[in-house]
Amino acid sequence: MCISISQVSRFRIHFLAGSCWGNVHGWRSTLWKSSSPKLLDFRASAVDGRKRWVRRNVSTNIEGRNNTKNGSGISGESVPTNAVIDVERTEVWSEVQKLPLYSSNVQERLAESKNLSSLLTVIVCDIETTGLSRVNERIIEFACQDLAGGENSTFQTLINPGRCIPNSHIHGIMDHMVRRPEVPRMEELIPILLQYVRSRHKPEGYVLFVAHNGRTFDFPFLINEFNRCSYQIPPNWLFLDSLPLSREKMKSLGTKAQSGLSLQALGQYYNLPKIGSAHRAMSDVRLLSLVFQRLTFDLKLSLPDIVLRSFRASDIGNSKKKKA
Questions:
Q1: CB of 212 within 8 A of CB of 241?
Q2: Looking at beta carbons, which pairs linking 48-56 to residues 24 or more positions away fall under 8 Å?
Q3: Which CATH number belongs to the domain containing residue 175 in this structure?
Q4: DSSP H/E element including 170
Q5: Taking the mean position of all CA atoms in its chain, how far away is CA 112?
Q6: What are the per-10-residue average pLDDT scores of the chain (324 residues)?
Q7: Out of 25, 171, 201, 279, which one is annotated catalytic?
Q8: Number of domains observed in the structure of the chain
Q9: pTM of this prediction?
């Protein structure tokens, strides 16, 4: 039985993570139709100035608590899931284009909704990259987890950046790992990601992406990759940086130590178990999912409070222009 956030006085994300495990938003029924252990995606190639699509195998990992094969699940190893995503770029965007154009006060209007818990999907995400420059570097790994849980609640994949990886010592991702033929390029991954998110968000609802230091790092990278591949961020996507929440928490403890703001430091503060290797996307997603629950609990943040702290892709672009 699902527990509605509207039934409790404060926003407790652990309610989200602990309930609704059986709620599947049409992901398997509409997308998983193949017995092949790989995703069939399309590679875009510029021929005569037009985008064309050819099918090829692409490997990603989708998993969820209801997956019990080999004891795997959200707390276990990745469970490869069979899927066929047989859609063209225009078909992916047909649903997105049906969404209304939201005004600049979308957060205020959404926060005032009496049915906020039935409109909002919270997804924690993380990326790994070839470097720090948002413009010149590329994403090489993406992972996310829908805090509502359920089947196929997580999504993870390596990404071929089309270049050498100079910082493998940081995240452990080597050139040979991303150059395999089944690893997608970003232009191939975006339609799959859009399908995944669309399968998770609620009808006529919004998606709130949460990342640690997301406003400075993760979200600008993601937005630039979308722009580079000639995609737009869907208008029902909102973003939240958990780093300011950690600053508030440290301030409440009377400390200003910057070292205590990192995701790993927060995990140690809350005595959370180490989940996988640090600086790998899915490991950081799992850790942030737990940290985020505790931060919002300690700061006594309601669901409307969370929404009011969020921002949109255009806000990130505007802030960059102001700094320039």
A1: yes
A2: 51/89, 53/88, 53/89, 56/181
A3: 3.30.420.10
A4: helix 168-171
A5: 25
A6: 34 37 34 36 37 51 48 32 35 42 72 93 98 94 96 95 95 96 97 96 94 97 97 96 95 78 92 82 96 97 96 78 45
A7: 279
A8: 1
A9: 0.72
Question: Which residue type is seen at 128?
Answer: E
Which residues are CB-contacts of 291 (< 8 A; sequence separation ≥ 6)? 212, 242, 246, 263, 266, 267, 270, 272
Q: Taking the alpha carbons of 271, 212, 159, 202 in that order, is the dihedral positive or negative?
A: positive
Respond yes or no: is residue 171 known to be catalytic: no
Rounded to the nearest 10 degrees, the angle between the axes of helix 219-228 and helix 313-323 is: 100
Please calculate the CA angle 290-292-294 and round it to the nearest 5 degrees: 75
Q: What does the block give as tokens for 60?
A: 């990603």
Orientation of helix 186-200 relative to helix 219-228, angle to 10° = 120
Print the domain residue range for 287. Answer: 5-323
Interaxial angle between packed helices 281-298 and 243-252, expressed in degrees from 0 to 180 and rounded to the nearest 10: 40
Report the SS3 class of residue 62. strand
